[in-house]
Amino acid sequence: MFIRIFIQIGAAIAAICLFASSGFAQTAAKPTDPQIAHIAYTAGQIDIQAAQLALKKSKNKDVRAFASDMVRDHTAVNQKALALAKKLNVKPEENDTSRQLSKQASDKRAEFSKLNGSAFDKAYIDNEVAYHKTVNGALQNTLIPSASNQELKDLLTTGLKIFQGHQQHAEQVASEFK
Amino acid sequence: MRRPNPRLSFGALSVLVSFAVVMARPVRAEVIHVTMEQIAYMPAQISAYVGDTVEWDNKDIVAHTATARDNSWDVMIAPNSKNSIVLKSAGTVAYYCRFHPNMVGQITVKARE
Asked: Which among A31, A112, B50, B51 is most buried, taking Cβ atoms within 10 Å?
């Protein structure tokens, strides 16, 4: 009897952890502009770091081209975000969502750095599809509607269109590995 | 007194007439402007004649390309800059941005009469 209850509690905890593992799911309260800025900036930096790993490890022409695009675009968007934060006198503020994103990303990088050749390429590009899908969903459903400053909202909206392009591009490259 | 050769003057006249016709309808290649803004080509669809130039003006914060689906041309346009191609042959060409495939456009190129 006790064992059964124990198993049930264990399963419930596992289910909660699984739900929370998407990172963005934890933002229960409406994030503030400084928090949104930090989440968006962190999400960009994570993708730059993943791309830098891909440029170090991959020999596939399309994967490398995609990774170079990610470094260039996310650097451009993040520069714009920093300039805007400065202009608005907003200090990006670390929060649970951005912390969790960073933690998950460093775990993923450790996992991917053990892979080589097409196993790495497939893992990287599949993750890029999933990652952009998650980030785009968070932008659309949480970050853009929660942003109160119009300039921040506009930059996030432009970012969303750019990242939707990345998602399509990643899907094209991923189809090579099916 | 020599009379003008009627055959010669007719020939000269027809040359003059054809010249006048050509002068009245000058074949002037045009430059068609397309803006890249908010991850979109504006206008997305354009019509042009062979010999015309299409110039893309990138007002976005990221680089874009204009890449023909049939691979006949591929132009990269950095942020806040312009780049162009001269249309060499007639036909309809669909194009897109290699970096952001959600950006699509089309050029209908007609031969000059």
From this structure: A31
